Amino acid sequence: MQNRTSLPSWKKLTSHADEIKQQHMSELFKQDPKRFEKFSIQLAPFLVDYSKNLISDSTMDLLINLAIESDVEAWREKMFNGEKINRTEDRAVLHTALRNRSETPLILEGKDINVDVQLALDKMKKFSDKVRQGLWKGYSGKRITDVVNIGVGGSNLGPQMVTEALKQYSDNSVNVHYVSNVDGTQIANVLRPLNPEKVLFIVSSKTFTTTETMTNAKTAMKWLVSSSFDQSAIAKHFVAVSSNKKNATEFGIDEENIFDMWDWVGGRFSLWSAIGLPIAIDLGFERFIELLEGAYELDQHFCNTPLEENAPVILALLSVWNCTFLGAQSQAILPYDQSLHMLSAYLQQAEMESNGKSVAWDGKSISYSTVPSIWGELGINGQHAFYQYLHQSNNVVPADFIGSVESVTPVQGHHETLMANFFAQTQALMQGVDETQVRADLKAKGRTQDYIDKVAPHKVHKGNRPTNTILMKRISPRSLGSLIALYEHKIFVQGIILQICSFDQWGVELGKGLANNIQEELSTGQLSEQHDSSTTGLINFYQSYTK
Ligand code: F6P
């Protein structure tokens, strides 16, 4: 396997990075009045402006060459065609098949998986319609008013993020809640106001082995049975989404209440499958289909657009540029839209669980820095919390700003204020303000020379901080579907360029295994001698209070 660092484009990018670091974006803007037109892409649901990155025409040419030399297009085809590109788990990666709106068969191991997908969608439609129309009754014959989704990671973040983002599209015929944490506080708080006669639980777990989810599901079952005094109530109040039918039925869920998942859908890419059931129940099945259609439109853009105009490809290349070549360690996700308040949490899993790795496809250590840590917050809240750091710390944090032209909840006078900040921040991060300007401004305000000398250095903003701006027309099921797919494909391309196995997650296993052992020790009170002195000391301290 040819190491990426030996590619001609990689070598050129390394020396080009040293050169461009000497430049300032504000100068690049002055030199090229067409910079915005050149470095932005307009798609139906949003505009992607990447002109406020430390890039020139040569940078983009080299980055596109890197994509070409990394065979991004061939890998893209392999993914869409169902080749087993998840090499460590020997699986295809076909979340795109879940939202495929074309009629072309997709054969996997001799079977057209479009047929399975359609059957699963039909089942979701029937079920969600029934629940929404009040035809699915609880054990005492009452209609379901509340749905509680129990799941964690990919079995929670996607559907919950979408439910939150599309709240304005819900007719509230059913209330949807999410329980992901094994901390009993969460499930206790969710269940407290609910009436067991009217609650439906969705146990979402691809593997149906995740301890936290199983613990929450058992608690929910106990809560239901202690109200109904009848085990048979479970069939009316519990459904599961899983690829592990055996475990789900052993757990007590009726086989006909199990919604299928397949091993070719990764957990963090699964909201398009029956894992999206709470979305369909909340918004109605037609809206869920609109979400899929939005994602499909972006899939089409990804598959059919030349690399240099391909939004996910460009975003992936810029991430590689900023992190691997220019040294950024983290990336902020900053939505200026209340609906997207869970986006950064969602993208944290999507990107960090996919590409937060340090071994290449061939099992050898990767010498270059891979992906950034992803973090973020709603823009305005962030401005009053950590933007100080974004503007003036010594660490450069590339950021994605995501806003909407039209608010889904127009309240007079609010949106302009929000968007004025949205536009101002990327300008400020790019331009900065130098000491000469700071001094001139202070002088114009009539400040004394002593004051100016004291304060001026603190007011300097170096600028030159990279941002992408994604300006959505409006948040809707369709545009949100496209936005999520944009990031999914960005993550895929990043993984290809960095030669990372994006679709496994071995890094979560070690801690899980140790937790299982420790849980055993906590319940028996017998500590093994395997622990280090810190872990032993902590457990002993804990047990001295719980005994
Ligand atoms: O955190 C590890 C992980 O395996 C994620 O990849 C996954 O989304 C989550 O746990 C939940 O897994 P499951 O759906 O199998 O319960």
What is the fold's blueprint, element by element?
Layout (H helix, E strand, L loop, with lengths): L7 H13 L4 H7 L3 H4 L1 E3 L3 E4 L7 H13 L2 H10 L25 E2 L2 E2 H20 L13 E5 L6 H9 L9 E5 L4 H8 L7 E6 L6 H18 L5 H4 E5 L2 H7 L6 E3 L16 H7 L1 H20 L6 H15 L4 E7 L6 H13 L17 E4 L2 H5 L3 H6 L6 E6 L9 H18 L3 H10 L4 H11 L7 E6 L4 H22 L10 H16 L8 H14 L1
Parallel strand pairs: 5-6, 5-7, 7-8, 8-9, 10-11, 10-12, 12-13
Antiparallel strand pairs: 1-2, 2-13, 3-4
Bound molecules: 6-O-phosphono-beta-D-fructofuranose.
What distinguishing features does this structure have?
alpha/beta; Rossmann fold; 3 domains; 23 helices
Question: Terminal Cα separation, in Å?
Answer: 56 Å
**Helical proportion, percent range:** 40-55%
**Molecular shape:** globular
State the total count of DSSP E strands.
13
CATH superfamily of the largest domain: Glucose-6-phosphate isomerase like protein, domain 1
Low-pLDDT runs: none
Output the strand order for the largest sheet. Answer: 1-2-13-12-10-11
Q: So what's the CATH class of the largest domain? A: Alpha Beta
Which molecules are bound besides the chains? 6-O-phosphono-beta-D-fructofuranose
Beta content? 5-15%
Q: How can the largest sheet be summarized?
A: 6 strands, mixed
Task: Just name the CATH architecture of the largest domain.
Answer: 3-Layer(aba) Sandwich
Overall structural class, as computed from helix and strand content, comes to alpha/beta
On the 0 to 100 scale, the average pLDDT is 97
Structural commentary:
By secondary structure, the protein is α/β, with parallel strands linked by helices. It has helices at 8-20, 25-31, 35-38, 57-69, 72-81, 113-132, 157-165, 184-191, 211-228, 234-237, 245-251, 277-283, 285-304, 311-325, 343-355, 379-383, 387-392, 414-431, 435-444, 449-459, 477-498, 509-524, 533-546, and strands spanning 40-42, 46-49, 107-108, 111-112, 146-150, 175-179, 199-204, 238-242, 258-260, 330-336, 373-376, 399-404, 467-472. The chain has 3 domains: 4-69 and 305-431 and 465-498, Rossmann fold (3-Layer(aba) Sandwich); 96-289, 3-Layer(aba) Sandwich (Rossmann fold); 508-546. The chain has 23 helices and 13 strands. A 6-stranded mixed beta sheet has the order 1-2-13-12-10-11, with helices on both faces. Helix 6 (113-132) crosses helix 12, helix 7 runs parallel beside helix 12 and helix 14 crosses helix 21 (477-498). The relative contact order is 0.13. The mean pLDDT is 97. 6-O-phosphono-beta-D-fructofuranose is lined by residues 151-155, 205-207, 210, 213, 267-268, 353, 505, 508.
